[in-house]
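quick one, 725 residues, struct below
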Amino acid sequence: MKELIKIVFTLFVFVHASQAQISPKAFANPEKQYRPIPLWFWNNTTVNETELLNLFRQMVEKDGYGGCAILPFGKDFKPEYLSDKYFSLYGAIIEEARKLDARMSLYDEYGFPSGSMGAINADGVPRFMNKYPDATIKRLDKIEYEVPSGTRIRKPLPEGKLMATVAMDTLSGKRLSLKTHIHSGELDWRAPKGAWKVLFFVCVKDGDPNVDYLNPEAVKLFVKETHQAYYEKFSKDFGKTIIQTFFDEPTLYRAQGRMWTEKFNEKFKARYGYSPELLYPALWYNIGEETQSARNRLFGLRATLYAEGFMKTIQEWASAHGIHSTGHQDQEEIQNPVSVSGDLMLCGKYMDMPGIDKIGGNRPAELYYKIISSSAYNWDKRQVMSETFGAMGNLKVKELYQIAMEQYTKGINTLIPHAVWYDDKNVTFLPELSWRNELYRDSLPAFNLFLTRLNYVLQQEGKHVADIAVIYPIESLQGEHVLDGALGYYEGGIRIPNTDYIHISTLLTDTLGRDFTYIHPEVLSTKCEIQNGLLHLNNHINKETFRLVIVPGMKTISLANLQKIETFYKTGGNVIFTTQLPEKSVEPGKDKEIKKIINRMITGNKSQSSSGKAFFIEKPRTEILRRTLAACHKVADVAFPDGQELKYIHKINGNQSVYYFANLKDTSYRAEVILRGKISPVLLDPHTGQQKDVTYKHQLSHGVETTSILLSIKENSSAFIIDRK
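---
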């Protein structure tokens, strides 16, 4: 029996390793499973089975798509959502997909955002709220009264679930719980000496028709009415023709940015061992030394409840039914995500394919691709999704390629085109990406084949390679955030000074040609180890090793995180702090320890035993960051001549190195690029499918083996360099 197990295991490893190798023949014409699957809007009209089937065949056979994600949309869409007739038409497409060896993604809503079953961007019927009125979004309200010294206040409790009643002295910051002064639904309290406010915090039903994203029991009801309804009709196709489910644009900015849940206090107590009542004022006010730690616990728990309530609930259902989960948040392009997505990286923890939306309207998603792909790297996900091109107008073909190339160099490896439209004469969000649009008729098959080749190479199981880890500053963002900020909930509420992590990201990837991975504070604490001046991300597949840690502008950091960073530094690791040095601790009462560590590393009292280097760049700009990176280590994973940097990604699939380089300029590129390590490179062109030889040489640089290649890429084009092994 043991021998049989050994043989099976050996066979598995062999097959697994074989699948990781890139085949030039398979690259030229990849299998259909790697084709892009677009959103297909059944938009604002009565759809007809004959026409549906004809359009679907054309999408697959003429446009080169790999299937579709059906999105019913608009007030005049017929037949009725989730009716027998609707499922009959849906089933006809599934049957046709089987014949064409195509695949389908299960879009979970009528219109969007996910969660209402048709109330928004649809026929306006709040189906979910009508059936489950108590399972919809809740809001946290604050009602406050000024209470002068010695004054008695008698007030009936406001309506809703009372979360806390707190008296706060606005001069000293002292806070008192007033729950013992509540009797028969009324507060009766006399203020002592001071300048007091009495604050009631109540959780109320918001009136928003979407499911309570923070409550997994409520989300399970939504899943039962939507996902489960499809499974009951088409169970035999799950995991075969239906391969994934897709959610669209949930967010925390609903409920005026004050989304809450009635069980918040008990969940807080279960996590931290005490009641949060006296912390509630910190959601709006500075409460002194405790402010940043209080906000981190409150906003941090809310972000966790959101990620676990919605994303995790859907992922668990999908996994149990043989498919993967993907989707994206609304307003991902906000530098302060606390009242928008909560913790954007954490959302991806509970998705099989973390995702983002590249959309029109001056929304710079490209600045945030690395957060989504890093989320996948942190939690060992194989695919990273982007819904792309929506509301961007009739883009030039060149722009389709440019957007895609940038995405794939920044870790996206599954592009969902937005969109194909059933009624192409009434398109709400251009472009219409099918053969019927003369702008793309001749170029779309080649573009989809290009995406298919990118998917084939970059979806292989492997690990991302980067020298640099950038700490994701969510703890500092949470520490400075307040509700009802001046920017408004849709824009994130408050602009937080000295927040530079996006600036650092663009300097690294868009200017200096240096890739990196954001590391989430949770992952740094739980999944990273330090050995000989290297920081190791210990995943099952995505095992990354970092030589440099960048701590972007932060006021607040976890003491446990900073202690690990100091250990990395003491054992030979290099650390760069930018813009603002940490001074506050996530853990209550630990600010002094934070300042001591920073003092040891930066301000002149460096440990004599340290073999690492630590730098503080108060105003990070291109040249000073370039020089500091060079001082940290001599041989980068990928090195370009100064001024000739490209966007790129490096992965190792099995034992095969794979590099993808993109030249997004209108001039051709030709330069010597140095790759750390000894490889036998060959160029694969994703635009043509052709394999080409590369001029290269092996050499030693500072005692390290490298491979120097002469890289030549046409304007607005890209290329893979892979190891021949």
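The chain has 19 helices and 37 strands.
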